[in-house]
């Protein structure tokens, strides 16, 4: 069966050991920016990549500044801006995408009730969307009422002590919209156990420079990235794993799909506090006029590499490449592809409707923003 893909769309083929995922996503940054002045990049890229546009703006700004030798450090304002956009995207994905991907979008009563609580979110008020910083106290109060159903410190304390028990107790007790959604998919999510090594090249400069060399030497790298031939995963799951391991050597090296959803809630709780440094944001100069920058946004680690004609803010862009989180998580041989390839073995007793639901749950756990179609070759 042939499927006509829309631009930027993935096609999933559950049960196929080869080509379980294919994509028509293309690299646009280089074609758009080549020959333009360096300062055009932070202006153009947020328009090209509307999802997480602020993250693209910040990462591009850092890349250009580092290439010109202006700076490689970040400001508190930039950290706060990244944290706020990340929290906003988490909220949007939970309310707007989870019901559709979980097969609950036809439950009008629940969806309408959820939208009422979404409208009250300070992150989505007019001032916040116009760039006015949100009061962390106001966001924290909304989070406790609309998501957690208890004080943030209590929920986070339980999560950090025992994530599995925290999730079980929370979804059983709370009557909030996210808790209701996750309560309904618990059994399905526990059947899905995809895992891969986390992507953490920004933890050291050696890893960053090796990654930059791969971006430069292989034009296909941005579409199918690897590290030393290994495919990694990036996103909330890998961030929470690292935070857990930092304070708990017994923390698991991988987490279940069920825990990945809890990790999104946990990051929302973390982002409602005063500490904003759990999201990495930075850059390095590779050579005069060349730099790599990165940021951890809602969907995972974002990488921008740029080469200018010279280390001058007015210099023209020679090349510009972006590695998005989607290309790691939905790599043709990556963590989601492997889960899709094995899916019929795990779901052979399920109906087609249930299998579609499992695919939606798996997608939501990694990147609910993506658009995809499903091609069934097994009947």
In short:
The chain contains 16 helices and 7 strands.
Description:
This protein is an alpha+beta fold and 379 residues long. The chain has a single domain, classed as Orthogonal Bundle (Cytochrome-c3 Hydrogenase, chain B). The strands form 2 sheets. The protein has a 4-stranded antiparallel beta sheet with strand order 3-4-5-6, sandwiched between helices. Strand 5 and strand 6 form a beta hairpin. Helix 2 packs antiparallel against helix 3 and helix 9 crosses helix 10. The chain is globular.
Counted up, domains total 1
CATH architecture annotation: Orthogonal Bundle
Distance between the termini: 12 Å
Task: Indicate the radius of gyration in whole angstroms.
Answer: 21 Å
CATH class reads Mainly Alpha
Give the DSSP E fraction (strand runs of 2 or more residues). Answer: 5-15%
| Poorly predicted parts | 1-7, 245-252
Tell me the structural class: alpha+beta
Helix content: 40-55%
Got a strand count?
Answer: 7
Principal-axes geometry comes out as globular
Helix/strand order: EEHHHHHHHHHHHHHEEEEHHHE
CATH topology: Cytochrome-c3 Hydrogenase, chain B
List keywords for this structure.
alpha+beta; Cytochrome-c3 Hydrogenase, chain B; 3-stranded mixed beta sheet; 50% helix; globular; disordered N terminus
């Amino acid at each position: 069966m042939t499927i006509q893909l829309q631009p930027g769309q993935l096609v999933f083929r559950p049960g196929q050991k080869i080509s379980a995922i294919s994509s028509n996503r293309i690299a646009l940054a280089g074609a758009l920016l080549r020959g333009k002045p360096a300062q055009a990049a932070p202006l153009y890229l947020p328009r090209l990549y509307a999802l997480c546009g602020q993250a693209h703006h910040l990462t591009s700004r850092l890349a250009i500044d580092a290439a010109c030798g202006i700076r490689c450090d970040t400001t508190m304002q930039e950290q706060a801006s990244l944290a706020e956009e990340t929290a906003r995207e988490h909220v949007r994905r939970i309310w707007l995408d989870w019901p559709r991907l979980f097969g609950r979008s036809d439950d009008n009563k629940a969806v309408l009730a959820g939208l009422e609580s979404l409208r009250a979110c300070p992150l989505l008020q007019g001032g916040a969307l116009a760039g006015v910083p949100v009061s962390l106290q106001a966001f924290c109060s909304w989070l406790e009422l609309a998501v957690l159903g208890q004080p943030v410190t209590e929920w986070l304390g339980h999560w950090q002590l025992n994530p599995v028990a925290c999730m079980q107790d929370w979804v059983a007790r709370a009557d909030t919209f996210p808790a209701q959604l996750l309560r309904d998919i618990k059994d399905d999510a526990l059947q899905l156990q995809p895992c891969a090594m986390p992507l953490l090249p920004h933890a050291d400069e050696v890893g960053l420079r090796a990654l930059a060399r791969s971006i430069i030497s292989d034009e296909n790298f941005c579409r199918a990235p690897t590290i030393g031939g290994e495919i990694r995963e990036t996103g909330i799951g890998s961030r929470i794993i690292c935070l857990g391991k930092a304070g708990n050597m017994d923390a698991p090296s991988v987490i279940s799909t069920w825990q990945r959803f809890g990790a999104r809630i946990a990051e929302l709780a973390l982002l409602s506090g005063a500490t904003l440094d759990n999201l990495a944001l930075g850059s390095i100069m590779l050579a005069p006029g060349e730099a790599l920058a990165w940021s951890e946004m809602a969907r995972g680690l974002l990488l921008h590499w740029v080469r200018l004609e010279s280390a001058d803010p007015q210099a023209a862009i020679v090349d510009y490449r972006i590695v998005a989180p989607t290309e790691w998580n939905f790599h043709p041989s990556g963590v989601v592809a492997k889960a899709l390839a094995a899916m019929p073995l795990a779901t052979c007793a399920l109906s087609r409707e249930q299998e579609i639901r499992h695919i939606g749950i798996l997608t939501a756990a990694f990147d609910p923003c993506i658009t995809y179609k499903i091609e069934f070759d097994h009947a």
